[in-house]
Amino acid sequence: MSSLVLGIKMIDQFINFVIRPPRAEYDPDQYLWEKEFSLGGTKCKRQDLELTNSRGHTLRCSHYVPSSSREDTPLPCVIYCHGNSGCRADANEAVMVLLPSNITVFTLDFSGSGLSEGDYVSLGWHEKDDLKTVVSYLRNSNQVSRIGLWGRSMGAVTSLLYGAEDPSIAGMVLDSAFSNLFDLMMELVDVYKIRLPKFTVKVAVQYMRRIIQKKAKFNIMDLNCVKVSPKTFIPALFGHASGDKFIQPHHSDLILKCYAGDKNIIKFDGDHNSSRPQSYYDSVLVFFYNVLRPPPISSSYSSKLESYYSLGDVNSATGLDESFLYEIISGLRSACIDVASSSSAPPAPLTTKPTNELLSEAMPMIDTDTVLVEDNDHNVDDPENFEVTGACVKTIINGEVVVALNYVSIHQF
Q1: Is there a contact between 159 and 238 (Cβ–Cβ < 8 Å)?
Q2: Chain segment 131-181, per-residue pLDDT in tens
Q3: Helix axis angle, 322-335 relative to 300-309, nearest 10°?
Q4: How far apart are alpha carbons 148 and 165 in whole angstroms?
Q5: Which of 93, 168, 203, 272 could form a disulfide with 244 if both were Cys (CB 3.0 to 4.6 A apart)?
């Protein structure tokens, strides 16, 4: 009997792991970019708004735009889609990558996540309808030209599912998507060492299917990116960490193999939640510039961008001078930092302390390594079921590299 009780408890934990993971709770004024800030010499602003999805849930959203943007000059926009334990604060790095290039960034807390309404997440199924609500809003605003999607984990699946229904999307960046949920759940049984016979696991998954259908109103068997990929023609850049043990790299490989549109994939060191390397963000920037074609910007920063973007179509076999490439990228990165404004220091999600406290404690460093940060805000019953990682976020203040923020993250779909 005790084994049966333990098995039921484990199944219930797994169900919550899928549809009710730890929920990000945060203060937007502390963990998002400020209402007014500067990037790359450009003054920018954060516009907060609320939208209502098709199920009547209020979605908390933010749109990052240049302060000088004119109503008669629509700009391209990338919608950032977070993972299952994430929130719109996860888009902070996307803002820093894209906004200096006249590409605005829209981000939201999906229903059931962050500060939005809703009790459960659905790993992409209902989130794609939230995304439809956002796209409709942007289209009707007449402030946006082309639209791109950038999703990570659950957000990548959301983008794929929506992209299959809306060919007008200009391009998608898909970071660590799972190929189909059923196979992923079977794999996670092994990852988390749930010691049950395989036939028992399959019975348990069918039980979970019914419970999830009842609670969260979706069928886990319908979440299949391999099924929609052959009919999706939107240009796509896939990304996956080679050390991802949670959603293993072969998931992206399976999707890529049957994806119908123009496609490329970047593999990089790290795991599911690790910070992405700068080279990956460089590729994302080039990709979105090529598919979104933002209006040109003035100043020396613009000339660096044009040289940089032109590398997007360069074949590695052409013998490109590596020193020239390094010079362009280094100049571009330095141009992105506006040291005249302390608000240009990027915030990070789920910090253990308010941003102002962390900044006051920051100490100059030459380099930073990944660190483990204790997190007392999440209720994790079984430490084997979650891997908590932390990282230092570097920024430049008055020419010195400092540790600006420490943040933690929990394995996210």
Answers
A1: no
A2: 999 999 999 999 999 999 999 999 999 999 999 999 999 999 999 999 999
A3: 140
A4: 14
A5: 272
- Contact, 65 vs 104, CB < 8 A? yes
Q: From CA 309, how far away is CA 328, in angstroms rounded?
A: 10
E strands, 82-162, in order? 104-108, 144-152
The DSSP symbol for 56 reads: S
pLDDT tens per residue, range 273-325: 999 999 999 999 999 999 999 998 765 555 555 555 554 443 333 333 434 33
**309 three-class SS:** helix
Tokens of 196: 């049950």
Structure tokens at 22: 């730890």
Residue range 384-394, pLDDT digits in tens: 333 333 333 33
Q: Which of 34, 38, 35, 42 is nearest to 295 (CA)?
A: 42
Residue ranges per structural domain of the chain: 29-183+223-296
Name the residue among 335, 342, 326 with its Cα closest to residue 298.
335
